[in-house]
Amino acid sequence: MRAAPTILHLDMDAFYASVEQASKPSLRGKAVIVGGLGPRGVVATASYEARRFGVHSAMPMAQARRLCPNGACLIPRFSLYRAVSDLVMALLRELSPLVEPLSLDEAFVDLEAGGTAFDAESALETGQRLRADILAATGLSASVGLAGSKMLAKVASEEAKPDGLLLIEPGTERALLAPMSVRTLPGVGPATGEHLRRAGITTVGELAEAGEDELVRMVGRAHGLGLYRMALGLDDRPVVAERDAKSVSVEDTFDVDLHDRVRIRGEVQRLADRCVHRLRESGHSGRTIVLKVRRYDFSTLTRSETLRGPTDDPAVVREAAARLLEAVDTTGGVRLLGVGVTGLADYTQEDLFAQSMAAEAAAGAAAEAAPAGEGGAAEPDGAAEATGTAGPGGSAGPAGPGGPAEAPEGAEPGGEPEPARERRWAAGSDVRHAVYGPGWVQGSGVGRVTVRFERPGSPPGRVRTFRVDDPELEPSDPLPLVGEPVPGQHT
DNA sequence: TCTGGGGTCCTCACCCTC
DNA sequence: TCTGGAGGGTGAGGACCC
Fold first, then answer.
1. pLDDT at A347
2. Sign of the Cα pseudo-torsion (A345, A351, A356, A359, in order)
3. Residue at shortest CA–C1' distance from C11
4. Do residue A207 and residue A300 come from a single domain?
5. Which of residues 2-41 of A touch strand B (CB under 7 A)?
6. Which of A273, A306, A308, A457 is most buried as measured by Cβ atoms within 10 A of its Cβ?
């Protein structure tokens, strides 16, 4: 077991919301809620100001708005968060080659492996310096936990939040953990927490007292053994710099449940294409195709099919997904569809056999499906979806100005020609005005869009309102949070 | 106005082979 | 030839994480 507290866990504070506050000076010190803005959107991150109203991650956005009616609700801007995250991860890699990112805003670092810390004192010094460097590079605060293991370092950073640093001295682990809730331990979520609570176990100390056998009996072998060890403060998992992806998937929740079988088939095909696109981008192929269907009552079904060999052929994935869909009863309505690929390989063995099978199957299916599919008259409730609100980019899609991010290509080959659509301006998205310069959308409706003209580092800016089709207003890329070059002057 | 998206890991059931 | 168990592959679902 490692003695020196040289595992560092970094956690950026309320990351998405903090990035939004840094890039939008008028929001600093205000309640900011980042998440899906559609009717089925949920909160991704809330600023600490919004958390005071009871808003938290995974809460339905509608509920968050009720709790915090004056909060600024914004769509996530992942490209910006990724850019900021890259800066932070680069700083971590200066400390050690062993950096294990967990998400855009969290990572473990093995300081000892990087030679940047060997005892409590040097670890503390490194942690403080890192926090200062992150603040200088991004303008954001981060919390740091230091301990002898990953689990304890994560507990420490959680305790240090917000904007703090905590080191757990070797030998103090059990006493520190004992009074904490079992929910503190990674892997104990609502279900396991409730399971343990019913057995009278609510603290980590009680978990340790329960003993290994009892825990294995209660929650299964792997989980029970892991929980018992963690309750004792034991965790010898190494920091792993490179992790191979094991699956790739895409899914969409629709604003309105889908009933029309033809429409559902179409969505599955579209998702299969998106999934293959992502699969290819990652340089993978995969062998098992998974279809996910969440029904009107929130029950979730998965159906999967394993191919003879890995593929990244869109036709093969589309066909497999279509076959899987045929085995699912969708009467009652579908709120979410997803297509995924697992069993990834890092080679693309061009599977001629599978391809020829797929081509045959496709030809057969096309011959069968075309009359019914194109006719679209089969489903008596087909008109139910004609609202058009349930489209891609509904609650989840960052349906920014210029149209939904997905389905850029003509999505409705057989549909009526689309009239010039009113431009949509999502709250929080970046824009540039020919006269007033860079700003962000504060809100839009009834043919108007309200823009606040400010940028990272500027004082809070002024608000102006335009027609949604104002030709001088256009979507733009986010500006960097720190060290922003003067726009238009690249010398 | 209930409940996103993209993942990982584990368990269990079933089938097949040895 | 029959039977039972072990073990791997597959499919489905649940829990959890950020």
1. 67
2. positive
3. A304
4. no
5. 36, 39-41
6. A273
CATH number for position A224: 1.10.150.20
A104 touches strand B (CB under 7 A): no
Those nucleotides of strand B lying less than 7 Å from any protein Cβ are: 1-12
Indicate if CB(A82) is under 7 A from strand B. no
Query: Where does a domain end: A204, A231, A258?
Result: A231
Give the tens place of pLDDT for each residue, A403-457: 333 333 333 333 334 445 567 788 888 999 999 999 999 888 888 999 999 999 8
- pLDDT tens-digit profile of A388-418? 333 333 333 333 333 333 333 333 333 334 4
Which residue's alpha carbon is at the shortest distance from the C1' of C10? A306
pLDDT of residue A372: 32
Spacing of A38 CA from B3 C1' in Å: 13
User: Does one domain contain both A295 and A223?
Assistant: no
Domain end call among A327, A343, A367: A367
Percent with pLDDT over 90 in chain A = 60
> How is residue A158 written in tokens?
């959680």
Query: What is the domain count for chain A?
Result: 2
Across A124-138, A213-227, A279-293, least confident range:
A213-227
- Element (DSSP H or E) covering residue A135: helix A120-138
Structural domain range at position A220:
180-231
* pTM listed for this prediction: 0.83
Is A222 in the same domain as A264? no
Cite the active site residues of A. Answer: 106
pLDDT tens sequence across A358-380: 444 444 444 343 333 333 333 33
Note whether A266 and A363 are same-domain residues: yes
The residues, ordered by sequence, that sit 6+ positions from A447 with a Cβ below 8 Å of its Cβ are: A422, A467, A468
What is the spatial distance, in angstroms and rounded to an integer, between the CA atom of A251 and the C1' atom of B6?
Answer: 9
pLDDT, position A422: 66
A103: which 2 tokens? 């998400």
Task: Order the strands of the A142-147 sheet from edge to edge.
Answer: A99-103, A106-110, A7-12, A142-147, A165-167
The tally of CA atoms less than 13 A away on the side-chain side of residue A235 is 24
More confident residue, A35 or A348: A35
Please report whether residue A164 resides in a domain. no
Give strand C nucleotides closer than 7 A to any protein Cβ. Answer: 9-18
**Residue A197 belongs to a domain:** yes
Tokens of A348: 């693309």
Q: How far is the CA of A103 from the C1' of B7 (A)?
A: 10
Determine the distance between A282 (CA) and C9 (C1') in angstroms.
Answer: 26
For the stretch A153-171, pLDDT in tens is 999 999 999 999 999 999 9
Q: Are strands A32-35 and A72-74 parallel, antiparallel or unpaired?
A: parallel
